[in-house]
């Protein structure tokens, strides 16, 4: 029991807030235009496709069979994309720089902080960025009248779960990457996931085999979860989507903690 407690103390000092505070302080000195730039991409997609193209398309059927305006169909998908963009950017590019160039984590782990403190702190910072992007996008949806049900209020905590999942997995993957060229793999995965996760049209347009692949992607689960809340078309799959992200968060935190310990403490 004593040995287990000792190993736990070596992994976690209960001071995640110190990592978050340091990250927020560093953010204040950065160019906020760069920080918020990732917010605008889904907004432009919404205005051009949702409002413009949506006037031609009319209504679209959700996975539960509800008929909704096209703009209201893609808006929640873009909300999930906004959360993903913010979380992934912070947990990949920023973490990669701190890991290999700033050597920040080596310095942190020479203090009383443990690998789990660092992992949770960095994931929380990425979560904050994802939440910032998503909250702004949610306001735009409300102004445009694209939240069709009172359950849309539940989309905000759902967005945090989505951002948490992508941040956890993003940092875990980044801990294995060694060069900036390898970081291109992240974009290589994110772009097709953005385009094909039932973001712009129902998943039913694809052949069944392709649908199975799409349904394995995290963004599809995020899109369906948010779309269910904002349109009010909910079913039992909500629990599957939440369970998927719960598993994603657990795996991401576990892998990140073990990698940081292996890289800097062993």
TrEMBL record:
Which is one Gene Ontology cellular component term of this protein?
ATP-binding cassette (ABC) transporter complex
State where the protein is found.
Cell membrane; Membrane
Q: Does the keyword Cell cycle apply?
A: no
Q: Which UniProt keywords apply?
A: Antibiotic resistance, Cell membrane, Membrane, Transmembrane, Transmembrane helix, Transport
Matching entries from InterPro entries are given as: ABC2_TM, ABC2_TM_bact-type, ABC_2_transport, Nod_factor_ABC_transporter
Spell out where the chain crosses the membrane.
32-56, 68-89, 123-144, 150-173, 185-203, 236-256
Picking any one GO biological process from the record gives: response to antibiotic
User: What GO MF annotations does this protein's record show?
Assistant: ABC-type transporter activity
Domain ABC transmembrane type-2 per the UniProt entry, residue ranges: 33-263
The way it spans or sits in the membrane comes to: Multi-pass membrane protein
Instruction: Give the record's family classification.
Output: Belongs to the ABC-2 integral membrane protein family.
- The protein's name is Transport permease protein
Give the species. Microcella alkaliphila
